[in-house]
Amino acid sequence: MSRGDTGLLQRKRLEALGLAVADLPVLRDVNDIGDARAVAALAPETRTARRVRELSEPAAVDVVLPVLDEREAIPWVLSRMPAGYRPIVVDNGSADGSGEVAARLGARVVTEARRGFGAACHAGLAAATAPVVAFMDCDATLDPADLPRVCAPVLAGEADLVLGARDAEAGAQPLRNRLANRYLARQVRRRCGADVTDLGPMRAARREALLGLGIADRRSGWPLEMVLRAGREGWRIAELPVPYRLRTGKSKVTGTIGGTLRAVKDMRAQLARFERG
């Protein structure tokens, strides 16, 4: 099958048997990495193309994007992903085809059946292979174009954890959410000395170090537990402002009474656990 005249010889045999032979478009054979890249360029939305990119273009940063019914926002978010930043979309039980949309656009998709923001983040972290991992919401409130600025101190070894403090446009962050974040930031400063003003959803740290923290929460307390544990371990925690926009769709946490109550309960549990040591 590897000879250059295989097709010609087979055609002659078929014609000798009296069969009519029709020509189809010529396809690209894959024998080496150059062929693989050419095939990936011809069909960029296939699993083969995605795997070729992962193998031939190793990412400096894996970006974990927890998703629950975000199909309207996913195309914009993925289109804004910087070069060298590989999106890992974690589908946490979407009913709107979010996972299929993300896969069609070339993202790696991980399915996490256990509901919860922390469960989705943990699944994404477990799937990541890049030395640095970033996390951000996939609802178009945050722009992936801001990731390099947030990740730069980690990549340069100047910080262990960087948080993107939300600079919210009008109406993007309800007053109750801003007040809750200020309260939580004060509690973090009091308990572990980390000088933060917001527990922003865009953040970055080294993968191995994050795994070593042993974050246990699998619900809404996951972001707070990360910062508390990092502070207790003496991590260098930095904060940078990032624009925060009106989201696409309704929040499944702060956009509902039930979600808000669960988030408050999870955050209180983390503060109490940390207080007990």
TrEMBL record:
UniProt-listed Pfam families: Glycos_transf_2
SUPFAM superfamilies linked: Nucleotide-diphospho-sugar transferases
InterPro entries in alphabetical order: Glyco_trans_2-like (IPR001173), Glycosyltransferase_2 (IPR050256), Nucleotide-diphossugar_trans (IPR029044)
GO molecular function: transferase activity
Alphabetically ordered keywords of this record: Transferase
Domain of life (superkingdom): Bacteria
Keyword Coiled coil found: no
Domain Glycosyltransferase 2-like stretches: 82-210
Protein family (similarity comment): Belongs to the glycosyltransferase 2 family.
Name the record gives this protein: Glycosyltransferase family 2 protein
Lineage, top ranks: Bacteria, Bacillati, Actinomycetota, Actinomycetes, Glycomycetales
